TrEMBL record:
Protein name according to UniProt: Alanine--glyoxylate aminotransferase
Annotated positions binding substrate: R357
UniProt-listed InterPro entries: Aminotrans_V_dom, PyrdxlP-dep_Trfase, PyrdxlP-dep_Trfase_major, PyrdxlP-dep_Trfase_small, SP_NH2Trfase/AEP_transaminase
Gene Ontology MF, one: L-serine-pyruvate transaminase activity
Protein species of origin: Galleria mellonella (Greater wax moth)
GO biological process, one term: glycine biosynthetic process, by transamination of glyoxylate
Lineage: Eukaryota, Metazoa, Ecdysozoa, Arthropoda, Hexapoda
Gene: LOC113520522
Amino acid sequence: MYEEKLIVPRPTIVDRQFTKPLLCGPGPCDIWPSVAEALSKPVLSPLCDELFDVMDDIRAGLQYLFQTKSKLVLAISGSGHSGMETVISNIVGPNETILICCRGIWDDRALEMSKRYGIKTKVHRILFNNTFSLTLIEGIVKILRPKALFITHGDSSTGSVQKLEGLGKLCHKYGALLLVDTVVSLASEPFFMDEWGVDGVYSSTQKGLSGPAGISPIAFSERAQEVIKKRNFKPPFYFDIELLAAQWNCFGNTRQYHHTLSPPLLWALRSCLKEVINETLPKVWARHAETTAHFHKRIEQLSLELLIPKPEDRLVTVTTVVLPKGYDYMEFVKYMRNKHNILIFPGLGPTVGKALRIGIMGVNSTIQVADAIADAMADTLIALKKSSL
Ligand code: GLV
């Protein structure tokens, strides 16, 4: 009846066939079979008791993952960036100061977000293939006295991991809170929120947790909760952690509606957490360390150089590899996909044109996967050799 009113004709949506590649970029990686199964559970209202139980399981699992006894632990509806928005906008207000330690693209994103909130930003920038010295940070924090310091634990744009032990204590000594991005390090690199004095932390599901993107673990320390209670500004409604805490029943007896959570993503995150809990964190960390050590050996046997010079700075989830002169990074990535159906990524942000980014994490963190990538890279090096002449 309304057919003649439609100004846009029906588009054609064709079925698309493809063979799933092995996902070996910096994320997303492949998902656990249990997570695929969880994603197909019946969609109930997130206001049903069944989903409230799932939310409680998620909070308990995240306390284990972050290693925190804090009650303010939940998952934000959105990708890792939503965690970044939440952590920054709940702690630092307009005209307050944040110090951002910049070495990769995510720190620059934190800088851009902070500016949009009217926060005063200060930057401590180092070379992309390096990590921060706590002594240097202390000198800067002592002078600037920021409300918070932002730092990325594992950086997928550079393939480096930042040492965090001692940083929380250092920040607290000068009245600053410590905010940390663990998007590509959680459930892969050791992380101890309470012991390290981390005050605000977020992650995502499509990396070490081997789940789908779209729901982001987050936690705030008790120290951060005190700051939140006293703040004289309001964060964006969608990211307001006080409203979210009431929805997630963080402090008991509150199931206040805030926004509609995605039941499939809740089930999926719960399954990711079950996988880690069943294996245990120490075993998960050891598996990632062993697999990546093996992969690095294979890379060195191919006479390829790792972008991060110091072994202790190399991230277990994402390896950055420098190709010999004459090879083209995009061509290499395309050949790996077309010939071997393995998806790896070129550089991003400061590493564009400088490295390949290869992710081995979560369910993919096995010697077989590491060998499959290294074998395909060996073939690709030979196949594309003429372009290097
Ligand atoms: C995304 O997280 C990326 O590192 O490309």
